[in-house]
Amino acid sequence: MSKLYPVNPTFAAAARLRHDDYTRLYAESVSDPEGFWGRVAQRLDWIKPPTKIKDVSFDPTDLHIRWYADGELNVSANCLDRQLATRGDKVAIIFEGDDPNDSRRITYRELHTEVCKFANTLKNLGVIKGDRIAIYLPMIPEAAVAMLACARLGAIHSVVFGGFSPDSLAGRIADSTAKVVITADEGLRAGKRIPLKVNVDAALERPGTNSVETVIVVRRTGSAVAMQSPRDRYYHTLMEGQSADCAPTPVEAEHPLFILYTSGSTGKPKGVQHSTGGYLVFTSYTHELVFDLREDDIYWCTADVGWVTGHSYVVYGPLANGATTVMFEGVPNYPDVSRFWQVIDKHQVTLFYTAPTAIRALMRDGEAPVKACSRASLRLLGSVGEPINPEAWEWYHRVVGDERCPIVDTWWQTETGGIMISPLPGAIATKPGSATLPFFGIKPAIVDANAEVQEGVAEGNLLITDSWPGQVRTIYGDHQRFIDTYFSAYPGNYFTGDGARRDEDGYYWITGRVDDVINVSGHRLGTAEVESALVAHPKVAEAAVVGCPHEIKGQGIYAYVTLIAGETGTDELRKELIAWVRKEIGPIATPDYLQWAPGLPKTRSGKIMRRILRKIGENLPDQLGDITTLADPGVVKNLVDERLIK
Ligand code: WT7
User: Fold this and answer.
1) Is 384 near ligand 1, meaning CB less than 6 Å away?
2) Residue ranges of the alpha helices (H) in 154-249?
3) Does the beta carbon of 474 sit less than 6 angstroms from any atom of ligand 1?
4) Shared domain check, 511 and 472
5) Can you tell me which residues bind Mg(2+) (predicted)?
6) Atom of ligand 1 nearest to the CA of 497
C-alpha cells in the first residue's frame, strides 16, 4: 500500500477547484468535449472566434486533428497586448542570471515593446508568415522575445537546446529549412562559457543548411566572435531605431506555432508540430489549474526553453495567463547547492516546478543547504520529466516544502503540448510516485499484450483514446511517420510510448518508456541516435545502446560496442568513443558505460535483441529469458561476464 497524502485543507479552502469540482468538470469534459472545450476557448482573445470546436479522427486511414479550425488569433497578442490594460506594469519575466548578481525584471509593457521591435526586425529581414526560424539561445529574456516575435508574424519557430552540438543543430536547421538562426555570442552555465556562435558557424558548414540567410547574434558575454558579412548581424544593432508598433498577424487556429525536435525509437529526431489555438487554450488552462495560479504568484519553472516544458510552462502558458514567470540561466549547484532556494527567497517564488533529477542530485547534499534558506514564500511544488521515485517525492515534500506545499507530479510529453495526468492541488489527494488522475478532457486507457483495453486495476501500455486541443498535429514534413509512430500500433488511439499501472483508486503510475527511447535526467534520447553516432566512428563496427538505472539521472546510457577487426578495446579508445558521442550529439548523450562486445545477441534474422542487453545493463543476468532463438547464444556469456555494473 502506498502512502496517501490528503489534500491540505488550508490550501483547498482557497483553491480554484476542490474535489467535487474535479469530478463534475471531468465528467462534463469527457461527455461533451465540444461544449467543454468551446467554453474553455473563451479564455483567449480571438480575432475571429471559432464556431467549429473539434474535428478529429484517430483512424489511421483518415487521420486528422483540428481544433477551433475556423477561429483566428495571434499568440503574442494574447500573451502581451491584452495584458497591457490591466497588467502593463506587472512584471512578466524575472530574469535570474547564471551569476547571482545578475538579474532583471521586465514588465509586460517592456516585453511588448521589445517583441514588437524584434518582430519588425525580422519583418525587415524578409520573414513572413509560415517561415521557419531556428532559435539557439541560452535562457535569457531574448529567447522569449524571439519566440513571441515569431508568433507575432506567424513565423514558425524551432528552438534548439543550447546544449546540442553543431551536427544536431545542423540536422534540425536542414529538416525545417530555416531562413534565420537566432543565437548568442556565448552562453553561460556555472561560470563556464558555451560557444554558441562558434557552433552555429560549424553547423552552417554542414550540407543542407543553405536555407539560412541571416544569423542574428545576441550579445550575452560580449566576447568577440567572428561575424561573417552580410550573413551575421548583431541583435542590438538591428534593433536600433526599430518601431515599437507592429500589428499582430492574425493566423488560423491550426497554423503551426512551432516545431520542436524530439527523439523517437528510430531514425533522426522528429519535428513535433504544434498548433496555435488549441495549443494556447490547453497550455494556459492547464497552467492556471494545475498550479492554482493567482494574480500575485511568482512562478518559477526551471526548464530550459530548448525543451517543451520551457515552451509551455516558462513562456506561453504563464504569459497567456498574465503571470510573472522566472527565467533562470544557471544550474542548481552554482555557485553552490543552495542556489534554487536562494533564488526562491530572492524573488519570493510561490510556485516552483522542477525535475526529479535535480531533486535527487540536491538530496545528496543533505538538508542543510535547503534549510539555510527560508522558502516561506512557497505554496506549491511541481515535478516533471520522468517518474519521481517516492524517496525523492518525500524529500521534496518534507524538506523543500516543509510539509506545507502540495506536490503536483505532472505527466506529459513533447507531443501532448501540455499536462495530461496530474493532481489538481486543491482537489486530489496524492500518492508519492503517482501522477494521479487525468486532466479535463483526457481519456487514458491501458492495454494488455493483446491490445485489449483493461478496466480497473491494470498494467500495460498507455494510450489516449481521444484528442485534446494541445495535441501534436503532425511530424514536420513527414505526416506518414506521424501516423506510423502514434496511431498504427493501436488504431483509433494515440499511443504514448509509455507503460503505466492503474491502481485501485484509479490513480496512474507511469512505469517508463516501453520503446527504444531513454530518459536521461528528464531528457529524451533515442538509443538509435547514440548508436548511429558510435558507428560513425571509424573504429566501430557495430553498437547497441540501452538505458540502465542511474541514481541521479534516472536512466543512464549503456553502450555495447563491437570494434572493427584488428582494433583492441583499450581504456583510451573507450574515452575517445565517449568523447566522440558527446561531440556528435551533445553532453546529454554522453554514455555512462561502454562495454566491449566481441559479438551482439541477434536473432537469426539479424535483429539485435535489446531485451537481453537491457537485462545485462541492469545487472539482472538471471532474467535474460529465452535465449535459444539467438543466432549464436554463445555471445551472451561473454557479455554477462564482462558486464560493467555488478
Ligand atoms: C516522457 C516525455 C513532460 C515534458 C518534459 C519531457 C516521461 C514526463 C513524467 C512524469 C513519469 C514522465 C515519460 C514521457 N515523463 N513526465 N511526471 N512521470 N514519466 O517531455 O522529452 O517529450 O519526454 O517523459 O516517459 O513519455 P519529453
Assistant:
1) yes
2) 166-176, 196-203, 235-239
3) no
4) yes
5) 535, 537, 540
6) 26
Q: Is 407 in the pocket of ligand 1 (CB under 6 A)?
A: no
Q: Which of 1-15, 33-47, 72-86, 389-403 shows the lowest per-residue confidence on average (mean pLDDT)?
A: 1-15
CA distance 278 to 312: 12
Task: Choose which residue among 301, 407, 413 to substitute to test ligand 1 binding: the one with the highest number of ligand atoms within 8 A of its C-beta.
Answer: 413
Whether ligand 1 lies within 6 angstroms of the CB of 521 is answered as: no
State CA 377 to chain mean position distance. 27
Is position 320 within any domain?
no
> Coil, helix or strand for 36?
helix
The radius of gyration of the chain's CA atoms, rounded to the nearest angstrom, is 24
Per the annotation, binding residues are 189-192, 309, 333, 385-387, 409-414, 498, 513, 521, 524, 535, 537, 540, 582
Residue 412 has pLDDT above 80, yes or no: yes
In this structure, what CATH number is given to the domain that contains residue 63?
Answer: 2.30.38.10
Does the beta carbon of 414 sit less than 6 angstroms from any atom of ligand 1? yes
Residues 487 and 596 in one domain: no
Tens of pLDDT, residue by residue over 486-521, are 999 999 999 999 999 999 999 999 999 999 999 999
CA distance 564 to 631: 20
Stretch 628-646: mean pLDDT: 93
Instruction: Write out the residue range of the structural domain in which residue 491 sits.
Output: 1-73+434-515
pLDDT, one tens digit per residue, over 428-466 is 999 999 999 999 999 999 999 999 999 999 999 999 999
**Same domain? 550 vs 629:** yes
> Which positions make up the binding site for Mg(2+)?
535, 537, 540
Q: Is the CB of 562 under 6 A from ligand 1?
A: no
| Domain closes at, from 475, 492, 515 | 515
pLDDT of residue 408: 98
CB-neighbour burial class of residue 465 (10 A; exposed 0-12, middle 13-18, buried 19+):
middle
**Pocket test residue of 301, 314, 411, 442 for ligand 1, highest count of atoms within 8 A of CB:** 411
Name the residue with the closest Cα to ligand 1, atom 7. Answer: 386
Neighbouring C-beta atoms of residue 97, cutoff 10 Å: 18
Q: Phi/psi at 173 (nearest 5 deg)?
A: -65, -45
Enumerate the known binding-site residues for CoA: 189-192, 309, 333, 521, 582
Residue-wise DSSP of 380-439 = EEEEESSPPPHHHHHHIIIIISTTTS-EEEEB--GGG-S--B---TTT--B-TT--BSBP
C-alpha 443/C-alpha 445 separation (Å) is 7
User: pLDDT tens digit string along 295-305?
Assistant: 999 999 999 99
- Ligand 1 atom nearest residue 524's Cα: 21
Distance 307 CA to ligand 1 centre (A): 11
CATH label of the domain that carries residue 551: 3.30.300.30
Please choose, from the candidates 271, 294, 343, 268, the residue with its C-alpha nearest in 3D space to the C-alpha of residue 102: 343
- Residue-level pLDDT at 141: 98
How many domains in the chain?
2
46 falls within a domain: yes
Tell me, what's the ipTM? 0.99
State residue 266's pLDDT score: 84
pTM: 0.97
The predicted pLDDT at position 1 comes to 61
Cα–Cα distance, 350 to 395 (Å, whole number): 18
Encode pLDDT of 261-284 as tens digits.
999 988 899 999 999 999 999 999
For residue 354, being part of any structural domain is answered with no
Greatest alpha-carbon pair distance for the chain in Å reads 73
Evaluate the omega torsion of the peptide bond into residue 60 and state whether it is cis, within 30 degrees of 0. Answer: no
